[in-house]
Write a structure and sequence with these properties.
alpha+beta, 17% strand, elongated
Length: 532
């Protein structure tokens, strides 16, 4: 912000005009995933025993062990929600790439998922890609390296490989053939003589035949190739859902940048209106003008900050989705069956979480700002001044539904609107009232619409003399009268219908609609109104 402000001052505009800078353009060049296929983002060297984190970033085991662990709270509560399980506090670290929280399993960093895809890429790079030519030994420099230590990350010639295995400090390191390629089954770490050709569905890990008949006896196991194909289909289905999500995030970022430009343009227009209104006035009006410009600058700064924060959140989310999509695509395109099987749980969980992240986010910093030159603004230096800024914003959470409703939207010019409708058929309706794609308070509303029906306002009786307890002033719709000044009907007297009837309309059927004409004071249709 400081260099941009200095440049604007040298150009010559009014220094009192609010200085705004556009949102940063989208990042260019390779993404973090592109640059981290073979090199650790922490130590910048080739991967050594790479571990795949839940956020789909790969880091060397040694680099992860150097991170400062922290407590992430007690163990999860029991299924009844009354008391936590006696597992003790959990320990976590922060991803050195995106600072996402990583809960460490019981075995610590060593128990995290091994990134076999990264190991394959490192092996290919050590061989100089797919081209011919022997690799050089990283210890003695001689050509003809045919082994690689996955723990140290060095290529070894036959002589150095034997020495590497004799040393006590490196005797337990994992050494693999340097010419390993994707698709070739790897040896079992527990039974090196056998290959990992099975997949245990219960433990979700590749196993050999001996493991299946021993530690995993009774577990459902299937051919590793078929299991990789099945789990690959799950990843492909998630990718089909993630790609539209990525496009939607790109469109959201474009809308935010458009609003940022509109906000800056509107701020400049309002500042021009304020200066034009203040020209020709005395010092009191000029002082009032400067106050308005300061208020406008503060308002634009707040809204610009909100836009930048939203843009940063969307950019971060887009980067996460892009990284997840790139990793999954790379895994399916280049990964072995083992890599797919080992990584599928982490990748599926990450893509599912990213597919839901950020949904329903409201747009911030809407550029609704205008100058009201005729509005009284009190006094300045003893003189009455006019002109105020109108920057009202509609908050859907504070909007309520009130009054009557028809199919009309009317602006009351006071911050409220009358939204009305008239249903054509009876039934139960769900009414949505939204502001900027956000529901107002209480929306959606449920309204029951019934056919118009006039209920009886009187009583179903035999005569007014009996029903009123002998009151003379009670009338009856049947028109009957009685001697002695009684206005209603009685047994056997003039006008009495001779059977029970409604006193309000004279109908003889008890279950019927009243035909009594509604008077001017009778309530009309039941309507509702929403005020924004």
């Amino acid at each position: 912000m400081v260099p941009a402000l200095r440049g604007a001052l040298r150009a010559g505009p009014d220094p009192r005009e609010p200085a705004l800078a556009p949102l940063s353009p989208p990042p260019r060049g390779p993404t973090p995933v592109d640059a981290a296929k073979t090199h650790c983002p922490s130590c910048l060297g080739l991967f050594r025993a790479p571990r795949l984190l839940p956020c789909l970033h790969t880091v060397c085991t040694a680099c992860l062990e150097k991170l400062e662990p922290f407590s992430v709270g007690d163990a999860d509560a029991g299924s009844d929600g009354l008391a936590p399980l006696p597992l003790g506090p959990r320990v976590g670290i922060l991803c050195p790439v995106c600072e996402a929280q990583v809960d460490l399993p019981a075995g610590g960093v060593q128990a995290l998922t091994i990134d076999h895809l990264a190991l394959s890429d490192v092996l290919l790079e050590s061989r100089g890609g797919d081209g011919p030519g022997p690799a050089a030994c990283d210890l003695c420099g001689a050509a003809g390296a045919d082994k690689r230590c996955q723990t140290c990350g060095v290529s070894l010639c036959p002589f150095c490989c034997q020495a590497h295995r004799r040393q006590k400090r490196t005797a337990d390191h994992t050494v693999v053939d340097l010419d390993a390629r994707a698709g070739k089954p790897e040896p079992c770490p527990t039974h090196p003589a056998e290959e990992l050709r099975l997949f245990c569905e219960l433990c979700e890990r590749p196993v050999c035949g001996t493991c299946a008949n021993g530690e995993h006896l009774g577990h459902p196991c299937e051919d590793a190739g078929r299991a990789a194909q099945r789990h690959g289909e799950v990843l492909r289905a998630l990718l089909r859902g993630a790609r539209p999500r990525l496009r939607a995030l790109d469109e959201a970022l474009a809308r935010v940048r458009g609003r940022d430009a509109a906000l800056r343009e509107r701020v400049r227009a309002v500042a021009a209106d304020v200066r034009a209104s203040a020209e020709g006035h005395i010092a009191a009006v000029e002082e009032h003008r400067d106050q308005l410009l300061r208020q406008l600058a503060a308002l634009s700064t707040r809204r610009e900050r909100a836009l930048r924060m939203q843009g940063a959140q969307l950019e971060r989310l887009r980067a996460d989705v892009r990284a997840g999509v790139d990793f999954a695509e790379h895994l399916l395109a280049r990964g072995s069956d083992l890599a797919v099987l080992v990584s599928q749980g982490v990748v599926v969980a990450r893509l599912r979480a990213l597919s839901q992240a950020g949904r329903g986010t409201r747009s911030a910093g809407h550029p609704h700002i205008r100058f009201c030159p005729q509005e009284a603004a009190g006094q300045c230096r003893g003189f009455p001044v006019y002109g105020a800024l109108d920057a009202q914003e509609v908050d859907p959470a504070r909007c309520t539904l009130q009054g009557e409703v028809r199919t009309v939207v009317q602006d009351n010019k006071d911050g409220t609107y009358n939204v009305s409708y008239t249903p054509k058929e009876p039934g139960i309706y769900t009414v949505w009232v939204c502001v900027e794609e956000q529901h107002v308070q209480g929306s959606p509303f449920t309204v029951t619409v019934k056919k118009r029906h006039h209920a009886h306002s009187g009583i179903f009786h035999c005569c007014t003399f009996c029903s009123s307890g002998g009151q003379k002033a009670v009338r009856c719709a049947c028109g009957g009268t009685m001697p002695g000044g009684y206005l209603g009907c009685g047994h056997g007297h003039k006008g009495h219908p001779g059977r029970p009837h409604w006193s309000c309309c004279g109908k003889f059927a008890e279950k019927s609609e009243c035909t009594y004409v509604v008077g001017p004071g009778t309530p009309g249709n039941l309507l509702r109104t929403v005020a924004l």
